[in-house]
Amino acid sequence: MKPSIYFVTVFILVIVSLPTAIPHDYSDALRKSILFFEGQRSGRLPKQQRMAWRGDSALNDGRNLNTDLVGGYYDAGDNVKFHFPMAFTATMLAWSSIDFGSYMSPNDFGHNLVALKWATDYLLKTVSQLPNRIFVHVGEAQPDHNCWERPEDMDTPRTAFALDAPLPASDLAGEITAALAAASIAFKQANPTYSKILLDKAIQTFQYADSHRGSYTDNPAVRQAACPFYCSVNGYKDELLWGAAWLRRATGIDYYLTYLVNNRQAFGADFNYLEFGWDNKVGGVNVLIGKEVFQKNVSALAAYKDTAEKMMCAFLPETTGPHMSYTPGGLLYKHGGTQLQNTAALSFLLLTYADYLSSSSQQLSCGNLKFQPDSLRRIVKRQVDYVLGDNPMKLSYMVGYGEQYPREIHHRGSSIPSVTVHPNAIGCLPGWSIFHSPNPNPNILIGAVIGGPEEDDKFIGGRDHAEETEPTTYINAPFVGVFAYFKSNPNFA
Fold first, then answer.
1. Backbone region of residue 221 per phi and psi (left: phi > 0; alpha: psi in -120 to 50; beta: other values)
2. Would the pLDDT of 19 be above 60?
3. N or C: which end of the chain has fewer CB atoms below 10 A?
4. Which residues constitute the catalytic centre (predicted)?
5. How many CB atoms lie within 10 A of CB 46?
6. Do 265 and 247 contact (CB within 8 A), yes or no?
7. What CATH architecture does domain 5-488 belong to?
8. With 60 as the cut, is the pLDDT of residue 1 above it?
9. Is 410 designated active site?
């Protein structure tokens, strides 16, 4: 017998508004969420490197194309550099600085800019040969995934891939545009010269994205390299809106406003509006543009704000229309992908929109119902506390936070003895014996938020459950802003 709709609604409502049972140190979580990125660095590491078990790696990247592609981030527990999710990571680090930097201490804010610049320095390299060429990827995914090697020992192919005009790359170029434009805002005060470089290159990158429309994985060679890991399943039009939205925010130029108005419907800003992540930017586009409607009352963009409101209403079970799903323990749940990737990105949008409402002294309108901004913040608080240990497993999903957290995460560098302890190379096949070992990872990837539990709140763990135990940069990046807010508002309830 199925439970009544009324019962399910009330049950979910109770779940998302439960008070926190465990006190948390959000300042510690913020600091560690930023530190994590030092464990993902590729290239030559600086003297200030704090994740000391890492060493230099991939120092010849780009050589096959006679260019310098050294640096950037490994996206997850492997050793490939996928530029599409790396750019999204940079965008979210920048957005965290822009909208939540005021909640950070000067030290945390500075470290977040360092993490952002490690990404944007590299992204500038990927578009250094525009207007005719964009670099899309470094490393061959299948050979890399067939080996369990720390980055410092890599002997798998480091093939770099590029696309030349007029081949399309609107999704990739649109996301890089967003990253560089957002970062130009983040660095405007701290480093105005760098900020201008970022913005100029963002404008040029958007021209490539818009002039050569199509997905970067339309190209067979790139598709073989990037898929099934980072195919642009959602298409490229959302990234064109996303890039234009960030350029509008960074420049205030009316060309981008007109672009957003004229292409909103054709590019699907009302389609899949409940989604946000490295592939689908629609939810983020609507929320980002909604701020301009709030602050500047730009009526021509009101339709974006209206769709953003529809998204926000979907998080509240008592409203009509589509609804987001929650696990029995209260975690935002979406089918497909790693769960905490969805939780992080959606939580960021909720918190951002709540701040936009507060700053304009408005409420959220859901039909005949009105909600205060704190209604959205309570949902986010529940997600944050769940991730930090207030969940049915009583387990922190951030490595190095709290007493109980997964010790066998799916991450090559973390699981293999470091070069400081074992200077001799550990090859591909010997690495797999380490993978299958029941021993905890010897190197703690502090601050890594891993994939997380299943829809029933169960967590099996182990390196062979990558969907549960693999960290990614694009899980951590949105959480930086979220942790910053609750660091400054620790007693919010």
1. alpha
2. no
3. N
4. 410
5. 11
6. no
7. Alpha/alpha barrel (1.50)
8. no
9. yes
Single out the catalytic residue among 111, 410, 411, 465: 410
pLDDT digits over 293-333, tens only? 998 888 999 999 999 999 999 999 999 989 999 999 999 99
| Whether pLDDT at 186 is above 50 | yes
Contact 307, 264 (CB under 8 A): no
* Distance (Å, whole) CA 205 – CA 201: 6
Whole-model pTM: value is: 0.94
Q: Does the pLDDT value for residue 238 go beyond 90?
A: yes
User: For residue 21, what pLDDT is reported?
Assistant: 54
